[in-house]
Write a sequence for this structure.
C-alpha cells in the first residue's frame, strides 16, 4: 500500500509498504477514505513531539471502510463504514472504569500525540486499529465529516462536557482555526446567547461569523475587552482559549469577570502565565482544561453530525490525494487555510 512514512525530522516520504494484517484477536483493518491533517501531525514531522519513533506513519483523524477483521471481532464486519477514534485504552484501569479513558495507564494511539505506544497512522491506504476504537458511520454523514469526529468530540468535551455551557450563556472563543471553529459551532448549536470570536486572520473571522458567532474581532486591533463588553454588557459566562498560544491565555485572563468559567483548551506548550491571587479569589470564577477525547464525547459528536446540528465539513478548505501529501503540508501555510483533508 501507499503510505507517507516519516523517516526522520522533516523527512516524510511516500513509500510502498506492506498492508498490515489484523492478526490480533480484536484488531480491524480499515481502508482509509479520509484523514484530516492536524497541527500535531506537523509537530511530529518537525520534531516537536515526544512520542515519535522513526519510521513512523502520522495521521489520526480518520474514517474508512472495514477491509478485514480479527478472529474475536464481534461488532464490525467487512464493508462497514466506520469512524476511527485514535486513542485506544485498556478498559480496566481505574481511569477507564471511571469514564476517563483518555487518562488510561496503558493507552495507545494510531498516529496521534500523547501516549508513548503509537501504532501506524492514517496517512496510508490502510490502517490497523482495535475494535474498541471504531464507531459505525451514519449513512448521512460524509467520510470527510466523519474523519473530523475526533476533533469535533474534543470541542464538545471542552465546551459542553467540561465547561458545562448552558442555553443562553454568553461565550467567547479565542482562536478561529479548525478547533476554534468547531467550538464556535458547538456553542452555537447549544444555544449560546451571544458568541464572540477572536482571530488575527480576516478569513477566519469571516468563517466564524458564518458558522455561528455573533461577531468576530482581531485581538490585535483596539481593546478586545471593550469589544466583548459591547457585545455582552455583563461580560462572558464562558471563555474558551482555542488558539494554543500564551498570548491567547493572557487575553482570556483579561476577559474574566465575576463568575466567569474559562477553559485552557488550545495551549499545549509549557509556558507560564501569571494571575493575581486576590483578584482571582474574589472573582470566584472557575478554570477548566480539556484535552483528548472519550467514547462518550465521540458518541455525542456523531449525534451532532447525524442530526445536522454541526457540519464539520464546513471547515474544510483543501483536499488532496495521499500522493500529494507534500502539497497538502505546504498548504498548511496558506492564510486562507482551515482544515486540510487527505483522501487516499
Amino acid at each position: 500500500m501507499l503510505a507517507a512514512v516519516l523517516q526522520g525530522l522533516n523527512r516524510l516520504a511516500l513509500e510502498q509498504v506492506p498492508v498490515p494484517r489484523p492478526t490480533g484477536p480484536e484488531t480491524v483493518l480499515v481502508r482509509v477514505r479520509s484523514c484530516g491533517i492536524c497541527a500535531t501531525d506537523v509537530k511530529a514531522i518537525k520534531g516537536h513531539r515526544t512520542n515519535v519513533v522513526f519510521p513512523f506513519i502520522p495521521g489520526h483523524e480518520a474514517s474508512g471502510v472495514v477491509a478485514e477483521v480479527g478472529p474475536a471481532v464481534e461488532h464490525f464486519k467487512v464493508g462497514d463504514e466506520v469512524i476511527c477514534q485514535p486513542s485506544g485504552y485498556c478498559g480496566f484501569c481505574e481511569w477507564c472504569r471511571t469514564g476517563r479513558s483518555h487518562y488510561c495507564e496503558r493507552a495507545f494511539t494510531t498516529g496521534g500525540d500523547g501516549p508513548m505506544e503509537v501504532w501506524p497512522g492514517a496517512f496510508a491506504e490502510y490502517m490497523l486499529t482495535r475494535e474498541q476504537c471504531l464507531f459505525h458511520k451514519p449513512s448521512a454523514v460524509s467520510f470527510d465529516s466523519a474523519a473530523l469526529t475526533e476533533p469535533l468530540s474534543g470541542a464538545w468535551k471542552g465546551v459542553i462536557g467540561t465547561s458545562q455551557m448552558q442555553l443562553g450563556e454568553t461565550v467567547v472563543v479565542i482562536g478561529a482555526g479548525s478547533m476554534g471553529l468547531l467550538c464556535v459551532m458547538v456553542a452555537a448549536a447549544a444555544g449560546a446567547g451571544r458568541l464572540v470570536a477572536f482571530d488575527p486572520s480576516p478569513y477566519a473571522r469571516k468563517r466564524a461569523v458564518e458558522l455561528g458567532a455573533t461577531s468576530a474581532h482581531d485581538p490585535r486591533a483596539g481593546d478586545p475587552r471593550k469589544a466583548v463588553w459591547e457585545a455582552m454588557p455583563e461580560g462572558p459566562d464562558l471563555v474558551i482559549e482555542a488558539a494554543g498560544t500564551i498570548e491567547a491565555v493572557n487575553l482570556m485572563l483579561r476577559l474574566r469577570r465575576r463568575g466567569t468559567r474559562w477553559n485552557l483548551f488550545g495551549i499545549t506548550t509549557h509556558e507560564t502565565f501569571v494571575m493575581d491571587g486576590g483578584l482571582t479569589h474574589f472573582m470566584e470564577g472557575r478554570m477548566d482544561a480539556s484535552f483528548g477525547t472519550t467514547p462518550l464525547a465521540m458518541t455525542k459528536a456523531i449525534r451532532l453530525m447525524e442530526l445536522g446540528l454541526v457540519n464539520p465539513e464546513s471547515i474544510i478548505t483543501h483536499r488532496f490525494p495521499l500522493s500529494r501529501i507534500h502539497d497538502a503540508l505546504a498548504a498548511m501555510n496558506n492564510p486562507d487555510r482551515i482544515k486540510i483533508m487527505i483522501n487516499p
